[in-house]
Amino acid sequence: ENEDLLILPHGSYEVNIQQYIYESIVLAMPSRRIHPGVKDGTLKSDILDKLEELSPKAIDEKETPKDDNTDPRWDSLKKLLTDK
Fold first, then answer.
1. What pTM was computed for the model?
2. Tens-digit pLDDT profile for residues 22-64
3. Is residue 62 part of a domain?
4. With the C-alpha atoms ordered 40, 41, 42, 47, is the resulting torsion angle positive or negative?
């Protein structure tokens, strides 16, 4: 039941702890390493600037251009979505 408890049979003189050590090392390592300078924003580089420039940003409805020259068929379809 308890995985932290290892029960040894009477008379055994060897214990294989290889898997336990491996699991504890793997679990102790962070899943993703981040440079401290990147984390707090003090590290400046061209590549980080380019990544920031190319990262997807949330698009506000205010920023999206309004297309007034839409096909009237699309307008009637849009009304179907807003009628709900």
1. 0.35
2. 999 999 988 888 888 878 878 888 888 888 888 887 665 555 5
3. no
4. positive
Burial of 63 (0-12, 13-18, 19+ CB in 10 A): exposed
Secondary structure letter of residue 60 according to DSSP = P
Amino acid at 11: G
| DSSP one-letter string for 2-47 | -TT--PPPTT------HHHHHHHHHHHS-SS---HHHHHT----HH
Three-state DSSP class for residue 82: helix
State residue 73's pLDDT score. Answer: 82
Into how many domains does the chain fold?
Answer: 1
